[in-house]
């Protein structure tokens, strides 16, 4: 069924190239119609027997002990290895990677969420301050500020104010009053 | 009076789901057993073999037009073509499918309907004037 769907879909040749590697992360659904990889080199269903596990580990260029597929609960991972959730930030910046911007070597198994863990996006480097401290501080601050602002909206408090007083008999001429008529006297003070 | 010793830095840090443990607090960094050494050697052997294959292709006097990365091809295939064949209906997947598929649809149906009913009620009560129909908002 998969082969029928793959036929006729062209794999863009430049997508897997060295220089276009970053574009390859956004490339459309790949078919193996134009690549030399046989079907047994492609990801497949969840491995059930130890031989299948060994074959899958060899396929993905991993040690058999390192190879750990995602748990088989039908979510569609197949036999893809479950790699540690570490972003590309955490990799050694001084090592000569084959792809320095991705910090990724040719042929090395890519994380399922590789496009999330690139250096422009999610960073899982260890933080200076423990995560629980940071989240506690942030949530405390946010909640206190929101509660205070909310209370300020419900119970506003300000100094006593009266209506604004305008000069010139409440701006009689500016408000369009007749200049020939005597304006009504407005006195704002009491002695 | 003797106080309890202060909690270790690793306990203070508390490993969590979002960031990794610093290397200094991770016990795996200080593990110098021969098993770890053998594992590292095997990984290095695999890495060197792959690097050699790659560099041979890269520095070839008549290089191929495109050096395909099989890991990349497998990754793309796994995320696009291999999901449907390996998908299975389980209670969890059916539940998630219903939540993500029908949830937003039903939510917005009810929210928009309730909002429009409330607006219609206010128009009937006379508090709101029915706005003239316009295709230009």
TrEMBL record, chain A:
Function: Accessory subunit of the mitochondrial membrane respiratory chain NADH dehydrogenase (Complex I), that is believed not to be involved in catalysis. Complex I functions in the transfer of electrons from NADH to the respiratory chain. The immediate electron acceptor for the enzyme is believed to be ubiquinone.
Record's subcellular location: Mitochondrion inner membrane
Coiled coil (UniProt feature): none
Any Gene Ontology CC annotation: respiratory chain complex I
Organism superkingdom: Eukaryota
Species assigned in the record: Taeniopygia guttata
Keywords: Electron transport, Membrane, Mitochondrion, Mitochondrion inner membrane, Respiratory chain, Transit peptide, Transmembrane, Transmembrane helix, Transport
Name of the molecule in the record: NADH dehydrogenase [ubiquinone] 1 beta subcomplex subunit 8, mitochondrial
Family membership: Belongs to the complex I NDUFB8 subunit family.
Keyword Transcription regulation in record: no
A Pfam family it matches: NDUF_B8
UniProtKB/TrEMBL annotation, chain B:
Pfam families: NDUF_B4
Keyword annotations of the record: Electron transport, Membrane, Mitochondrion, Mitochondrion inner membrane, Respiratory chain, Transmembrane, Transmembrane helix, Transport, Ubiquinone
Membrane topology category: Single-pass membrane protein
Transmembrane feature ranges: 94-112
Any single Gene Ontology cellular-component annotation: mitochondrial inner membrane
Subcellular location: Mitochondrion inner membrane
Keyword Transport: yes
Quaternary structure annotation from Swiss-Prot or TrEMBL: Complex I is composed of 45 different subunits.
Family to which the UniProt record says this protein belongs: Belongs to the complex I NDUFB4 subunit family.
Role summary: Accessory subunit of the mitochondrial membrane respiratory chain NADH dehydrogenase (Complex I), that is believed not to be involved in catalysis. Complex I functions in the transfer of electrons from NADH to the respiratory chain. The immediate electron acceptor for the enzyme is believed to be ubiquinone.
Protein's name in the database: NADH dehydrogenase [ubiquinone] 1 beta subcomplex subunit 4
Taxonomic placement: Eukaryota, Metazoa, Chordata, Craniata, Vertebrata
């Amino acid at each position: 069924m998969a082969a029928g769907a793959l036929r006729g879909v062209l794999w863009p040749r430049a997508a897997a190239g060295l220089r276009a590697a970053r574009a390859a992360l956004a490339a459309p659904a790949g078919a193996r119609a134009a690549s030399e990889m046989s079907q047994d080199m492609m990801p497949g269903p969840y491995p059930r027997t130890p031989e299948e596990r060994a074959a899958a580990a060899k396929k993905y260029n991993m040690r058999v002990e390192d190879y750990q597929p995602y748990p088989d609960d039908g979510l569609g991972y197949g036999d893809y290895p479950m790699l540690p959730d570490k972003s590309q930030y955490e990799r050694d910046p001084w090592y000569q990677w084959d792809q320095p911007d991705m910090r990724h070597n040719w042929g090395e198994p890519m994380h399922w969420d590789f496009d999330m863990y690139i250096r422009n996006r999610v960073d899982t480097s260890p933080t200076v301050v423990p995560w629980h401290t940071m989240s506690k501080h942030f949530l405390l601050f946010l909640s206190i500020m929101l509660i205070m602002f909310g209370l300020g909206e419900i119970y506003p408090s300000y100094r006593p104010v009266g209506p604004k007083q305008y000069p010139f008999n409440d701006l009689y001429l500016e408000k369009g009053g007749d200049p020939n008529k005597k304006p009504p006297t407005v006195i704002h003070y009491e002695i | 009076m003797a106080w309890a010793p202060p909690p270790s830095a690793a306990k203070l840090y508390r490993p969590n789901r979002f960031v990794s443990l610093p290397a200094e607090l991770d016990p795996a960094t200080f593990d110098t057993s021969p098993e770890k050494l053998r594992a590292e050697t095997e990984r290095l052997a695999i890495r060197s073999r792959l690097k050699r294959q790659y560099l041979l292709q890269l520095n070839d006097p008549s290089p191929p037009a495109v050096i395909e990365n099989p890991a990349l091809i497998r990754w793309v295939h796994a995320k696009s073509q291999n999901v449907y064949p390996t998908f299975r209906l389980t209670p969890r997947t059916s539940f998630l499918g219903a939540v993500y598929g029908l949830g937003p649809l039903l939510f917005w149906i009810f929210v928009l309907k309730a909002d429009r009913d409330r607006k219609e009620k206010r128009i009937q009560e006379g508090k709101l004037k029915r706005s003239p129909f316009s295709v230009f908002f």
